[in-house]
Amino acid sequence: MTAFITVFLTVFLAELGDKTQLATLIYATDADRPRWLVFTAASLALVVSSALAVALGGAAERWMTFLPLKLIAGVGFLLIGGWMIFDHVLAAR
């Protein structure tokens, strides 16, 4: 159960304010679109993209055992974060 809660909270927090949510919000503001249709389409898109991520992650774990995938992902996130901070500092000048 702890693993489920960890995954849920991580993905939930990562999605808050994401461009996906903003797109869904914009679609939901259109009076010509039923809310249930926006909810269903957005939910299905998230389920399909998550299924694809899990399938690719499983394949990567099976076929790329020679690579430290978690380390590569972690370094990638740090580099992107550093790049964003550096870009922000440059823009503030």
TrEMBL record:
InterPro entries cross-referenced by the UniProt entry: GDT1-like
Main localization of the protein described in the UniProt heading: membrane
Keywords: Membrane, Transmembrane, Transmembrane helix
Bilayer disposition of the protein: Multi-pass membrane protein
Transmembrane segments: 36-60, 67-86
Pfam family name, one: GDT1
Domain of life: Bacteria
Keyword Disulfide bond assigned: no
Compartments where found: Membrane
Entry's family note: Belongs to the GDT1 family.
PANTHER family: TRANSMEMBRANE PROTEIN 165, TRANSMEMBRANE PROTEIN HTP-1 RELATED
Official protein name in the record: GDT1 family protein
Lineage of producing organism: Bacteria, Pseudomonadati, Pseudomonadota, Alphaproteobacteria, Parvularculales
